[in-house]
Amino acid sequence: MAASLDYEAVGVDMSLRAIELATTKATERGVEARFVVADGLRLVDLGEQFDTVLDCGLFHVLDDGERERYVGSLAEVVPPGGLYYMLCFSDRQPGNWGPRRVTQDEIRVAFSAGWRIESIESAVIDLTWDPAGALAWQVAATRR
Fold it and tell me: Structure pTM?
């Protein structure tokens, strides 16, 4: 998406298969993006800084300890004034399928040091198997 809007884009995933699929999609869509197999908990290993980070689907699959490591990892690669946008499963989503649900308080606590939460808004994550999608939180935060 970012690359299609003429932004320099780097996609990161631990799954080689996910990176291969993303590379194929970018090629088919005629957009230039770089995709890297890497650990989101060790973003510093990329040796880069990012003015903006988009997270759709990582935060909500992490346990408490991993979430703390993830936010620390982000802080290492997002300079002060940098932006972080997240879409994660919400505690408002009924049922017990899928990833762990996230509360607004969990988000606020996770990003309490070194970040300013700009907004947490209700959203829907599109799902390929359910046209109704899943209830989510759309988060915007700025690195202090």
Answer: 0.94
